[in-house]
Amino acid sequence: MVASALLASSAEAQWQLDGILLSAAGGDQYAPTIVPDGAGGAIIAWADDHSTPQRIYAQHLNAAGVPQWAANGIPLCTTGGNQFSPAAVGDGGGGAIVAWADSRAGNFDIYAQHIDASGTPLWGSGGLAICLAANDQIVPVIISDLKANLPAPGAIIAWQDSRSGVPNIYAQSVDGQLGAVRWAANGVAVAPTAASQTDPVMCTDGMGVTLSNPKGAIIAWTDSRNAGVTGQDIYAQRMSAGGVPQWGASGLPVCTAAGAQQLPSIVFLFSGNVIVAWADSRSGSSDIYAQHVGGGTVQWAAGGIPLCGAAGDQISVNLATDVSGGAIAAWEDGRNATDHDIYAQRVDGTGAVLWSLDGASVCAASGRQMLPAVATDQVQGALVAWVDQRAVDRDVYGQRIDSSGVSQGNPDGVRLGRRTIEYRPQIISDNAQGAIVAWTHSDGFYDKVYANRIFANGGAVGVPTGPVAAFRLFTPFPNPARAATTVAFELPSAQRLTAEVFDLDGRLVRTLARGREFPSGREALRWDGRTEADQAVPDGMYFLEVHAEAGSAVRRILVIH
């Protein structure tokens, strides 16, 4: 018990208030994808244009938030053209298989790479060609085929493919030991039609445990074959481990109700069974619906069941397992006419919703909350991360909700990022009832990838999980500082604040905030170690003075270059 407590304390000490920067290289790093490393940490891959052409890079963060591979990450492919849209899955041994869209042939093709636990790419400097068909292949999604008795894990990859002139969904299986594709060259059409198929999502079918009975995949997508009659619909297909469609040549209609059904999310329940959720406009506005699919048939009412039919639009739904044969959905919710909030709902395998009618509130702060990502907490609850505009900037926030839909930390979540422009958070479970979140951060000039952790109590490093009683100014970190340093403070209510840095002679060096309004709770300011004239300050002692309506305080900062 003592050892466990010490480990948890050590892990929390490594994660930082504003997150871990994964690459300090020049140019842009963006569009992260994140997978568990199997030991409480994460492997994160992203698109990186600090060199030409643009490459896919990856980094391994252990459970303490410490990078394990080379500074600024490892390039997964060092030949070919520009590379975009990475999608990753863990290999079960501390590494990952990553797929991406690649323009080396002029159009976009799908390539993949296996990177092991040491950060070594295993499938050559150019990666493995998954699909080289005509026209564009984009937006890959990937799952592991990890199962007993296989010498090395492989993967199943699906993507949006325009070889016929309109996008259809194709898939391919990769042998992890040989680094070779298993199915027909350039992949198999999962349900070929003359109409558009987009937005693929995929999970395992869970069927296989041995070489003679291996795993396949269940794929869902937005389908336009009935666009003139019902609008866009949701279809699904199960692909066997041998690449053979199991639910008919045209796939299974999950929902063909009136209006548009689009942007599905999918989660595995048990062998051959999944829950699919989507945004649905049959009522005129957009609501959240779901369906249980198993054995090639829909298990709930025709057209699915509503998870939320509240006023306004509900969009951007994402699913996670509740580890009890059901799912937890989180979405962006417009029932509040002035902005959007984040809501969630838990549904069991019979189609019964378990939380409040139309969902439980995850965050109802002022401003708009959008683009939620969700992961299981392994005990029938979930972790949710989202983009939040309660302040002027877009920040990434997170929250844990328990099996009853009750928030475990601050009622409106905790800030994970740097208070600037942040978007598209990705989230995974940390196997300790918390989560690790990765996102893209923009300072107005360059995009960078950051990651941070939400702990089981719903808090993040340096962020309280209850109401703030009084003004507090914390010790700057790092201190001594070689360059930038960050100082956290707490406010009992929204109020204006001024923060200034002075030298030993009392001369003003830098104004960090002047009469700027901050919300209640814990916030942070960053000093980059430079003057108002944007010159690096000399070594020495400096004083940070912070004056708020609720109080004032001073902290020393020692600068040593």
CATH topology of the domain at 76-189: Tachylectin-2, Chain A
CATH superfamily of the domain at 76-189: Glycosyl hydrolase domain, family 43
For the residues shown, what is the average pLDDT?
91
Largest sheet: 5 strands, antiparallel
CATH architecture grouping of the domain at 76-189: 5 Propeller
Number of helices: 1
In terms of quaternary structure, the protein is single chain
**Helix content bin:** under 10%
Shape: globular
Radius of gyration, Cα only, in angstroms? 24 Å
- What percentage of amino acids are in beta strands? over 45%
Class based on secondary structure composition and strand pairing: mainly beta
Number of strands: 41
* Uncertain parts: 1-13
- Which class of the domain at 76-189 in CATH terms? Mainly Beta
State the separation between the terminal residues, measured CA to CA: 41 Å
Would you spell out the secondary-structure blueprint of this structure?
Blueprint: H1 2-14, E1 20-21, E2 29-36, E3 42-48, E4 55-61, E5 74-75, E6 83-90, E7 96-102, E8 109-115, E9 128-131, E10 137-144, E11 155-161, E12 168-175, E13 180-181, E14 188-189, E15 197-204, E16 217-223, E17 233-239, E18 252-255, E19 261-270, E20 273-280, E21 287-294, E22 297-298, E23 305-308, E24 314-321, E25 327-333, E26 341-347, E27 360-363, E28 369-376, E29 382-388, E30 395-401, E31 414-415, E32 421-429, E33 435-442, E34 447-454, E35 472-473, E36 485-491, E37 495-502, E38 508-518, E39 521-527, E40 540-548, E41 551-559
Antiparallel strand pairs: 1-34, 2-3, 3-4, 4-5, 6-7, 7-8, 8-9, 10-11, 11-12, 12-13, 12-14, 15-16, 16-17, 17-18, 19-20, 20-21, 21-22, 21-23, 24-25, 25-26, 26-27, 28-29, 29-30, 30-31, 32-33, 33-34, 35-36, 36-39, 37-38, 37-40, 40-41
